[in-house]
Amino acid sequence: MGVLRFVLGDQLSRELSSLRDLEDGDVVFMCEVADEANYVRHHQRKIAFLFSAMRHFAEDLRSRDVVVDYVALNDDKNAGSFTEELKRAVRRHEPERVVVTEPGEWRVLQMMKDWREELGCEVEIRPDDRFLCDHETFDEWAEGSRELRQEYFYREMRRRTGFLMDGDEPAGGKWNYDHSNREPLKKAITAPERPNYSVDETTEAVLDLVAKRFGNHFGSLENFDYPVTRRQALHYLRWFVDEALPDFGTYQDAMRQGSPLLFHSHISALLNCGLLDPKEICDRAEDAYREGHAPINAVEGFIRQIIGWREFIRGVYWREMPDYASSNKLLAQRKLPDFFWTGETDLNCLRQSFKEVRESAYNHHIQRLMVIGNFCLLCGFDPREVQEWYLVVYHDAYEWVEMPNVVGMILYADGGLFASKPYAASANYIDKMSDYCGDCTFSPKKKTGEGACPFNVLYWDFIARNKERLKGNPRLNRTYATLERMNEEKVKTSRKEARAFLDGLVATGDY
Ligand code: FAD
Ligand code: DLZ
After folding, report:
1. What gap in Å lies between CA 326 and CA 269, rounded to an integer?
2. Which residue has the least CA distance to atom 22 on ligand 1?
């Protein structure tokens, strides 16, 4: 036969570099393997989403006369790993060579590098040009920059891609409209209702399989209604641009109990597995601005997340791996408490976020960053444990995007490689941006004592505990000046109460 083209579960695009020169006689190979579902125990919904999307993608290729060799998880001889399954496929097809697109995770790239020897067959690894910035361009930019700052990278990406540019100038006159994107949600504002996608036979079979094989993993499979085909993903993107994008910017940081999506796109899982392409998403968003359908603060904010943050985070991952995984500059060692899995905590903001992620494998950015992430930072949870939790629970989580967000963005475990200061905040921020505190047993206004919100005592404990490591940071000058001015007894009380709270966290490691 010709070429064996191995497509991974997060590479579901017909434009993929490894499929581009597909010819008669070639075979596309895909496999569901237990190792990928178990190397961390992924949320049941994430596995179901990906298997269903993979099976639909294979069906779509077959409908275009492509020969697809698809090994399902419950196939008799399934060998359980990429390498062993590929070996079997090579024995079946005896290809002249194997072609793959580079993977999203460092661990899988190491596997791929061994394949030529293990398979006794030529293996070509092609770049993943679904991203808008390749590794060399990112590294060159990083080498030439005094500091790794997303904002400068983003401006460079705007110039290079031409998104939201009027000649050499940014559309609307400014590069960044973030200051207009921090409005709390007024009661009268309601979030638009999402389209849902019915479960067909293929998805039904996957849901049964996942319930049987991974029913003891975190999360629920109930009410599965997410897009799983390219056609559904495009329909969903159109819906988002029409109905939610215009308010995306203004309420980007807001949180509301019982309304997990608000005006967020909920496209990350579709984008990361290849059903949507970053360029087409940004094109649609820019069209909405140019046609007067969505304001500049919404469209600029949205495009920045994709060509700025998403590409920047990927660049950091590949530049810093493999040492990045073990970063722990703040020497944080506390074990993750059980309630991250059970959801049983009296802190309402955390309880609501944990409930939502169990049901849907999704939280929006501010819940990930300022509620759960902030709590992890303040408590000093071990970065390895936090990384694993974030990789398990979200349906969009792959190491290349999860790790820098956890290590760099929320935990400051890389010592400020790209964040100018830790994102530490007391209860005030959550109270301002959400309605969680109204239904909580703790008060955000009380700083210490009975009923005080733990975020308040934890905040000052974090600042005091890390004084030697952080006080040289100019962006924390005011914080440390406030700590110096604070009544000594008050600081002592805060720290004592924080210690009692931290000592009371139960971490059995059973989950
Ligand atoms: P929207 O708010 O609608 O944003 C649009 C898109 O911008 C997202 O779909 C995403 O592709 C991109 N984006 C926005 N922020 C980021 C960012 N910081 N890094 C990379 N892309 C970004 N995103 C993932 O895709 N996978 C992850 O595993 C992941 N882990 C995260 C862990 C932490 C601790 C934090 C703080 C953020 C993480 N993010 C991750 C980024 C972001 O929170 C999600 O992309 C976003 O919440 C997905 O929801 P959405 O599609 O509604 O995004
Ligand atoms: C996440 C995942 C899971 C759960 N299962 C599979 C699978 O069975 N087959 C597959 O090709 N990909 C799977 N994936 C996605 C891979 O883990 C992903 O391709 C690598 O982590 C590289 O990003």
Report:
1. 26
2. 310
